[in-house]
Design goal:
The complex is a heterodimer of chains A (254) and B (221). Chain A is of the alpha/beta class and 254 residues long. In chain A, helix 3 crosses helix 4 and helix 4 crosses helix 6. Helix content of chain B is 83%, strand content 0%. Classes of the chains: A alpha/beta (254), B mainly alpha (221). Chains A and B meet through helix 8 and helix 10 of A and helix 3 of B.
Chain lengths: 254, 221
Amino acid sequence: MVAGKNIFELKDFSFYYGDFLAVKSVNLGIEARKITAIIGPSGCGKSTLLRSLNRMNDLILTSRVEGEVLFHGVDIYRKDTDVIELRKRVGMVFQKPNPFPSSVYENVCYGPRIRGIKKKSQLDEIVENALVRADLWKEVKDKLHESGMSLSGGQMQRLCIARSLAQEPEVLLFDEPTSALDPISTANIENLLQELRKTITIVIVTHNMQQAARISDYTAFMYLGELIEFGETDTIFVNPYNKLTEEYITGRFG
Amino acid sequence: MGIFDDELRALRETVLKLGGMVENAIHDSVKALVERDSDLAREVIKRDHLINALDVKIDEECVRLIALRQPMARDLRLITTAMKITTDLERMGDLAGNIAERAIELNAEPQLKPFKNIPMMAEITKQMVRDALDAFVTGCSRLPYEVIKRDDEVDALTVRNFEELLGLMIQDPKIIPLAVKRTYIAKYLERIADHATNIAEMIIYMCKGKMIRHTEISDDA
């Protein structure tokens, strides 16, 4: 891969929970404005790796890292990193939709508000833009001041995406974003990811291999904390070179 | 994954069964010609619908497996290969039927001369079909590459057969109707060998995930 196109570069990156080595010396490039899927069995370190990209794992007290995670060429684990700013630029959407217990409108403008934007007209515009980009505007434009918790599961998840988009991130990290959703809501989110990819870099962890095959440009397969194989999704799912990858994606693992 | 493995095994066996039927059709159509046995030729023609039915059945099974099992990697390549090679096998069956038709026509006339090239072509062609299908079951080996190489022998025999008959036709134009039918038969066998080559190329794809069709073969088995 051409290094210049990579927004993230992981260099010999390892992650420890106490003494437990969860991610083992991973080298990986994440190309800008592409969808990179991380697949692998439970406990393989894929969520840990994802959370390392915006230092969500900092909250775990016994954790420590080795190696580097370069974002635009700068190691995000440097002491002088502004972690709040990092998480604004590298947003995250989780498995279960987790809107704040407030209105649709407040959910989306929460970030911009704490960033200091106060003008109503400006906030209105940010909220509308984010909801349009999250493909939710049409469904909620008449109930912006109703509780975000009153929406359906799929709508709540898109609300969380809109909340992230209001921060105008460069990268969005998705941790199993559709595993709690029905097939139609899943298809909506997948279509949305394809749309977002035009402007945002997406990294997604998924247990659903068909989903990785459907939506991603690149796929990384992890096992026991190691990056076993990384390549174009077409290659990984049609003709992987590693036997472990083949066994995993054909369902003959273990 | 036990059920899926059983289904894939059954699919392989069904493709092999189709291959066996096609091989028999080639064998019997040429035998009907060489031994002037028109009853056998008619039987080959009558049996062709069984080949067609099995071709359809395999296609349906492949579509079912793709829909329900969502195969990946080598499973996906096995299933897509099965779909493609059954089409080639079905065409071979049609060509064997064509040989049988020409045999019936030729058997109704006095024999021009004993057959020499055509039985040789039939032997090579049948072996190509058998080896291609063996490779489908046993997987990656040198066999598919051997099959592809042998296609040249069949092509050479087709040309030789034509040149010999052309010489006879120039000497005695009265034999042209019979001689032309003999050249047809060689052409049918030559096309059967082409289909066997297609199968071998698909087997290489199945094993290596690399399409070698319409390229120069680099023998890296």
